[in-house]
Protein: Carbohydrate ABC transporter permease
Organism: Paenibacillus roseopurpureus
Amino acid sequence: MNSTKLSVSKLVTTALLGLFSLLFLIPLIWMVSAASKFETEVLVYPIQWIPTKWNFLGNFEQVWLGKVPFTLFYLNSIKLSLIMTLTTLLFSSMAAYAFTKLQFTGRNLAFGLLLSFMIIPSEATLVPRYLLLKWFGLYNTHGGLIFMGMFSIYFTFLLRQFMMGIHNDFIEAAKIDGAGYWRVFWGIMLPLSKPILATVGIIKFIWSWNDYQNPLIFLIKRDLYPIPLGLQLFRNDFADNYAVLMMASLSAILPLLLVFILLQKQVIKGISLGGVKG
């Protein structure tokens, strides 16, 4: 009797959660529908979820082959996101390894000071960062954005929490075999940290891809624009054409959808482990 009640309760809960999840998908479904229509059918009420006349290829052509250099913006975003993701993984994992497994004077104090900087909002550092990039000659370059995006306190903290759960016996055994710091880091710590590295990599890639504020402040040349700023140009040129705007938006989020769909298990596993360890 109890097991029957439990099954019914689970079924009802699952059904409610499924319906609730569909609410979050409605904007995405509408975006796909609008991107496949002619402009005259986009704002028709009641909503026609399936277009009566398809114009998917026409909207696709206007976005990718039109006067706005969407392909260039795409390549800029891919370049910036990949480089910032890889450098963040490298530097944050090295810092986490040092704060976790290396013994040096003031280690905990240095880590505490590092964490204290997390309370400073990024908007409060815009002016100092602007001046620094000007002095270094990196203003209005991709190098400036990469320089600012290659270090992360948050991801260092997340990786450190995970690495604290790796037993020191692995490191001691490697040292007995003659391994140095770099070999321990590269050959033991990184392979054992794959779940959290995948999580950090995916989250950093998504953040870098969606970043609007930093390119807006630190880039002037149109040829250097990433996707978020490029979409702004579409809004200027196609303000009254929602079909083209939705096609541009759909094209912009495709890499993020693919990354999450392919690696969602690693994301969930890494977040769970990162939240428990330490």
